[in-house]
Amino acid sequence: MSVTVLHLTDFHLYADAGAAIKGIVSRDSFEAVLARACAAHPQARVMILGGDLAQDESLSTYRWLAQRLRQHEFKYLVTPGNHCKLDRLREGLEIPLCGHGPRALALVGGWRVLGLNTHWKGRVGGMLSNDELAWMDQELQHAEHVLIAMHHHPFPTGSAWLDDIALNNADEFWRLVHDHGNVRGIVCGHVHQAIDIRRNGIRLMSTPSTCIQFKPRRPTFELDDASPGYRWIQLGDSGSLESGVVRIGGFIPPNLSDTSEY
Q1: Is this prediction's pTM over 0.90?
Q2: Number of independent structural domains in the chain
Q3: Residue numbers of the domain that contains 230
Q4: For residues 183 and 199, what is the distance between their CA atoms, to the nearest angstrom?
Q5: How would you classify the pairing of strands 46-49 and 75-78?
Q6: Burial bucket for residue 18 (CB in 10 Å: 0-12, 13-18, 19+)
Q7: Is 145 a domain residue?
Q8: Residue 29 belongs to a domain
Q9: Please, which residues have CB within 8 angstroms of residue 62's CB and are 6 or more apart in sequence?
Q10: What pLDDT score does 95 carry?
């Protein structure tokens, strides 16, 4: 028996339904990715929202997203990103996420999915607080197999500018991972690209954004000519983990040379 988890991340939504980021209407691309994910995986019952959900960080945007998500019967976990105001996120989503309910899900086959909060107020990079590390340490004691979800990446991507805004205290995170020895996979957002590598037997994954993509392995920010997508993760009874990325068509920025901030 197995369970399928969907990971959608970096929506960068606005309250204005027609607002665009780098020429892409982020609400339209999000809707297209969500529709494909739900149609392709009707058996999936868990969805991880990978962070940077609202580009404008407004309460109305989170409320729109909550209304949209209530149309589906998923168990949700959220991993807050740098584009985030936690109080608005908690109030607006109105679903048991990020302090309003369990941030760990016990699944079949001895699996536990942990959603970590790497939001570092006022910073683009990420940080796990002492309380978050203590919670993670405690949760890791209660599972045979663990999938960890987080926004900021705790591993190098090969892009210097992205690795400068990664998880700041990754060494402390990895110490806990290695101490327990039951983490089978780690999935993150933030990097707007698909990465799938292994480190000491642990599968390390990142997921494309539902809007714009970053060109891999570049020293500075560049847009990629790739379409939005999502990641599926299948967790098996024996601790097996299978995963893949699915992309939709279109939604490529019209000006790939635009390196201005957003």
Answers
A1: yes
A2: 1
A3: 2-247
A4: 11
A5: parallel
A6: exposed
A7: yes
A8: yes
A9: 53, 54, 88, 89, 91, 92, 93
A10: 59
